[in-house]
Amino acid sequence: MSTTVTNRTLQPLAMPAEHAGITIRLLGPLQAWQDGTELVLGSGNRTAVLSFLALHANHAVSREQLIAALWGDDPPASATGNLYTYISSLRQILDPCRHRWSAGQVLTSGGGTYRLRVRKQDVDAFRFEALREESKRHRTIGDSSTELASLTAALRMWQGTALAGVPGPFAEAQRQRLAELRLTTAERHATLLIETGRHDEAISTLRTLIEAHPTRENLAPLLTAALHAAGRAEVPRRPRPPIPTEPAGHVPASPRRTGTRSPVRAGPGSLAGRETEIRRLRRAVVDTTRGQGRSIRVEGFTGMGKSALLAVALPSTAPSTCRIGWAVGRELSQRVPLGLLLECMESALAGEPSSELVRQISLATSPSMGNSATAPVARVVSLVRQVAQQAPLVLVVDNLHWADPHTVEAWTALHEVTTQLPLLLIATSWPGTAKLGTAEFGTAADEVHELAPLNRAASSHLVRTAAPEPPESPELDHLVAAAGGNPCYLWHLATTASDLNGQLPVSLVRVVHAHLAPFTQPTRELLRAAAFLTAGPAAHVGPGCSLNELAVVTERPTAELVELLTPAARAGVVAITGDGLTFRHPVVPRVLHEGTASALRVLLHRSFAERIAGAGGPPERVVTQLLADAVPLDVTLTRWLTTHVEQLTARAPRITVTILQRAHAQCTMPPADRMTLTIWLARLLLRLGRNCAAEAGWVASRTDDLDVEGEMRWMVALTYEKRGEHQTAADITRSVLHDRRVPAPWLDRFRLMQARLRQHLADRHDDCHREIGTCT
């Protein structure tokens, strides 16, 4: 083997020339054209193969990857044969003039892999993403009009649901990914319409989007912003969200009268250990009806039960004479001046003759009134005071951390008058939100209650209360550790009697995705990448990863990573300390990792391994990525492994054993590489005190190197000696000394072993004679 090959690292294969005559549409029903003529693609599985190849254009993909893309983890016995049929049919379609024995120009193969040679600009999904990236570049220089033009062109490319009708887990995952990109692009497009003064177009677009996506929380605040920018005083009707099934759901934003219960169903998990806070909130409502107001803030990270606490503590105790107004803050609420306060008042006065006040508040916040920044706040505070003077008033804002500055200013001003009026202000927020504390506006609450993660005792009590059967101590510890003190996650794990070594509960998966939904697509992509970096063998999830490694695998600068991940850190999903990133709740990275289609998981882990290796990262981190899923050890990976195996055995022996065992079991590996890696496997097993007889014996029976043969036979004999099987070890030693094939240094070792074994066998013989004599 040459030095050049031995020192080879993971490098991408050379890309062949691209074919310019093929055009492929994926943003709708899959269609393909060759030189302007549409091609008849035929069966669903054939289109699934083409879509996978198109989304990996000009890159070699293996048969295993294609099979996983079509059938997931349970392919039929005929999968390989069927795949050959699909590939052959596609070749006839894409290369109709190709001779049956020629390699073809569009769909090529080699080394067990296939490659679709098309220009990326001829695949609409790539053009769509390229236009998105182009819009980001315009955004960085503040060119809104050109950014809008790029996004308009990107959205016009869509012809329906992406990959409509294409079967298989890969196509489904891509449908979801592309649909989310389309919706995110549409939201940004609508925002730019507002910013560039095209308000009527924005309003029309947003109403269409809301009708199509009634549960998309970002759209309603955008429509409110568009209406305000257009000078319209109307309040947009929000679609009523579906009743959430998770215990930590949000109080709905729709208007509700006093005494009606919130549709949030709070399970015991979200309220574990919160009895004190419930009592204090209920007492505050009673005190307000007696004329004593105050301001209360409940702080806690996502999933700690803030919304459920409000839902349980407030509706059941509100007297009929008390008005209650609700609002739910979202990220886009920051763009609507005083929007949350307006929503609160609309809810409190819904259906009353005095709802004229709502119209006055709406007019006061409208930019068409030409008011200064201070005048609307003062006017709204005055109107709220009028309502509180009529009857006790409770205003509740869930997620006040998403409020715009004017709402926070008004909330602080109202806090100052709670001592004079029967006015109760209740807000929830994430901990450490600067704009809600003393840094900017002064103390904005009389009481601050922090919903901290549950301690070990409270978590154990919750599990024993919620679980169908009380778990044993090891299982209980496992559940508590997985939830990381998050009562919502722990409740779902407990009530479903989840086996954390198996599939996670569907309800838990939904809750985690709901908690991550408010983040932007780039932030969610980074969280998924971080989850992949924490993944290990057998569904094991590590504590976290470094920002430097995340920058390597995502090809983003560290500063950009910190900026994108800050919202997730504020929400308590991750913690960033120095260069380290840690998930606060281990179930979150598991959901992100296991929720990715199997074929995509393999591709991502392979890609991450390549990038870490290419950047000179620790070799054990490369191996961790290879072991996190069934990444095939192809020739490139095998050569990298043989180059770094000695370093790996010293730095990370246990995971090295696992990867070497996988390599030894792979019969298709080049014989020389398989031999080298099995030699190192046998040595490492012996060093770790494990049985290496099978591996060392395998090498000894196949190697042409007499020195290696001597080492391996000595290792086999030593293994039997350590296990107390002295007679077997003696037989091996006698055979080696009789043959005298191995070099002299090894013969000397065998002679020493023979002497030890004779003593053991002699002592054993004497013991047997003594036992026989005693019995006689």
Automatic annotation (TrEMBL):
Domain of life, source organism: Bacteria
Keyword Transcription: yes
Domain OmpR/PhoB-type: 14-118
SUPFAM superfamilies in the cross-refs: C-terminal effector domain of the bipartite response regulators, P-loop containing nucleoside triphosphate hydrolases, TPR-like
Pfam families the record matches: AAA_16, BTAD, Trans_reg_C
Region (Disordered): 233-270
One Gene Ontology term of the molecular function aspect: DNA binding
DNA-binding residues (ranges): 14-118
Family of the protein in this entry: Belongs to the AfsR/DnrI/RedD regulatory family.
Protein name in UniProt: DNA-binding SARP family transcriptional activator
